[in-house]
Structure formats: structure tokens, C-alpha cells
Amino acid sequence: MAPLERAEIVHVDWSALAPDEGKRLRAMGIDAGARVAIAHRGIFVGKDPIALMVGRMNVAIRRVHARAMTVRLV
């Protein structure tokens, strides 16, 4: 996904994440049906963290969290 390109989260593989991480992501509105966009990527090796726009909020997530999500462009 390119920066600022809009997408909808179709599925999140919660089993790929620790239970407390999943709970935190859900509390921030990251779940199936949420509309998101990448605001920024990290500049260091691995491009971690990723700043994800969820509504009007920016959330920093790790690449491992992003890999657990399936999105479709909107």
C-alpha cells in the first residue's frame, strides 16, 4: 500500500498476535471494516514503525501487526 492510499481492513489474523496486542489494536479501532491509510513509514532498517491513519487518529504499529491484516483498496 502506498502512503495516503485508502484501504479497508477486511480481516485481522488475531491468532498471529499476542492477546494483549490484539486488545490494544481493537481499542484503537483497528478491526475488520475500519478504513485506514498509511501516513508514514519508519526510516530505519525494516521501516518500523508504521504510522497508520484510522479516522482522524494516527496510530503507530509494528510491521508484525500490519502483516496480520488483510486490506482492500477503496
From TrEMBL:
Keyword Iron: yes
InterPro entries named in the record: Fe-transptr_FeoA-like (IPR007167), FeoA_core_dom (IPR038157), Transcriptional_repressor_C (IPR008988)
Pfam families xrefs: FeoA
Coiled coil regions, renumbered to chain: none
Record-annotated Ferrous iron transporter FeoA-like domain positions: 2-73
Keywords: Iron
Molecular functions per Gene Ontology: transition metal ion binding
Protein name: Ferrous iron transport protein A
